[in-house]
Amino acid sequence: MSRLEPIGVLGAGWVGLVTAACFAELGHEVCVRDIDEARIAALEAGGTGIYEPGLAELLERNRERLRFTLDVREAFAAARSVFVCVGTPPTHSGDADLSAVWRVLDELEPGSDGLTLVMKSTVPVGTGEKVRIELDSRGRADVGYVSNPEFLAEGTAVADFQRPDRVVIGSFGPGPGDAIATLYEGLGVPILRTDVATAEMIKYASNAFLATKISFINEIANVCEETGADVSVVARGMGLDPRIGPHFLRAGLGFGGSCFPKDVAALKQLAGNSGYHFQLLTAVIEVNELQKRRVVAKLAKHLGSLRGKTVTLLGLAFKPNTNDMREASSLVLASRLLAEGAHVRGWDPVALGEARELLQGVELHEDLLAALEGADAAVIVTEWDAVRAFPYHEAGRVMRSAVLIDGRNVLDPDEARAARFFYESVGRP
Ligand code: UDX
Q1: What DSSP element (H or E) covers 169?
Q2: Which of 31, 39, 224, 340 is deepest in the core (most CB within 10 A)?
Q3: CB–CB of 146/119 below 8 Å?
Q4: Radius of gyration (C-alpha) of the chain in whole angstroms
């Protein structure tokens, strides 16, 4: 099989678009199908609809190799490998909603010979087996199924695809897995071949482990606050041990986003459904919830009652370099502060559009200093560059009181105090 075979992608969301753009960049013709007319129209007109560094340029550069369509037959027509990148959001019970995956099976054309469905969406362990059984019972034993979980982080997704640490390919037998492995050969990275359930579990276990690291360092930070140790130096000291590693040990307001909260809850649920109580993950989730709320006590220490006080949240997106507000710490924090009777303001360089719908009752500002004008306190929620370069002098002039809670440990405590701010961070004296 040629490395440059055409590829189909189902779902033009964030994972689907990054996958499509990166395979097009490798030289493949890619046909992307979505059911959302507005999204397809926007893509055809040259937009992306999402904020992901490098993605727009990649789509533009490979315009000739990319096609966007509402018609599923087009996506299946030329391609032998079709990447399933549809949404699998959590349901009220915490299980994953797989309706979009089942719809893909309903849409299979008869006789799409040699076709392999490649699951990129995060699906509960066991889904691949259910899909396999369903395909077989529909007389479609000819359709291959491969699990190929994505490990893309928002903000660095393009680089994560092009220079991954590993590619995981789970298959029921060698055939379809070999074909998909060939597509990634050009990247020159380790390709781990497994069975389908193991590939599905690698994705959940990786995200749950990273989330555990974050909750762990946040608890260490909270103990540091009681004992006078400095968590950032503790993390550096721990990270020098290669068995621990330096990554994902940044204490702060906890993790958010579209993956960690959802995947940790889903793994806990998955274990629970089979009768196993995953105690550690229960604690990881609880620590993450409490971590955001600790800011309120820090504010109250300086301001007393928060009723009638103006508090500005600096950064609203769940992390920098994205406009994604899913499970952002700002959402919980804003609600808590509003419930305490505070006036809440928000500033973010790219997420204001998303924030407008989600942060009812919060006064939103495009200009950082305007957001701080007359404020009693500011809280750093997302570590945008503009926040890292906090304008102490101007902020000190416009704020009513110079209280600064650094929820991401991005500023230098000495510098903040030299600028006459009442400064508190997370786990640093
Ligand atoms: C994550 C995984 O990194 C990726 O591999 C997976 O496919 C999807 O989930 P993403 O959600 O984009 O990607 O964000 P990531 O950069 O991993 O950060 C997740 C959250 O953890 C953010 O809210 C971030 O602020 C927080 N975090 C991260 C910390 O609080 N401390 C850290 O040390 C690292």
Answers
A1: strand 167-171
A2: 31
A3: yes
A4: 24
What separation in Å is there between the alpha carbon of 211 and the centre of ligand 1? 8
Residue 207 CB–ligand 1 contact under 6 Å: yes
User: Per-residue pLDDT for 3 more than 50?
Assistant: no
Q: Could you read off the pLDDT of 155-167 as tens digits, one per residue?
A: 899 999 999 999 9
Contact between 224 and 234 (Cβ < 8 Å):
yes
- Round the average pLDDT of the chain to a whole number and report it: 94
Please determine, for residue 370, whether its predicted confidence score (pLDDT) is greater than 60: yes
The C-alpha torsion from 166 through 172 and 175 to 181, rounded to 10°, is -10
Q: What is the mean pLDDT of residues 353-382?
A: 97
Strands 144-147 and 167-171 turn out to be antiparallel
Q: Which residues are 347's β-sheet partners? A: 314, 365
pLDDT of 186 strictly over 90: no
What are the pLDDT digits (tens) for 325-337?
A: 999 999 999 999 9
C-beta of residue 86 within 8 angstroms of C-beta of residue 98: no
Predicted pLDDT of residue 110: 79
Distance CA 242, CA 123 (A): 31
Residue 35 scores a pLDDT above 80:
yes
**Does pLDDT of 96 surpass 90?**
no
- Nearest Cα to 157, choosing from 250, 58, 298, 296? 58
Does 259 qualify as catalytic in the annotation?
yes
How far is residue 139 from each of residues 135, 136, 154, 288, measured CA to CA in Å?
A: 6, 5, 39, 46
Cβ-in-10-Å burial (0-12, 13-18, 19+) of 7 comes to buried
Cα of 311 vs centre of ligand 1, distance in Å, is 26
Domains of the chain: 7-194 (3.40.50.720), 252-424 (3.40.50.720)
Alpha helices in 240-342 (DSSP H): 260-273, 279-303, 329-339
Residue 313 pairs in a beta bridge with 346, 379
The answer to whether 284 touches 268, Cβ cutoff 8 Å, is no
Mutation pick for ligand 1 pocket among 260, 288, 330 (CB with most ligand atoms within 8 Å): 260
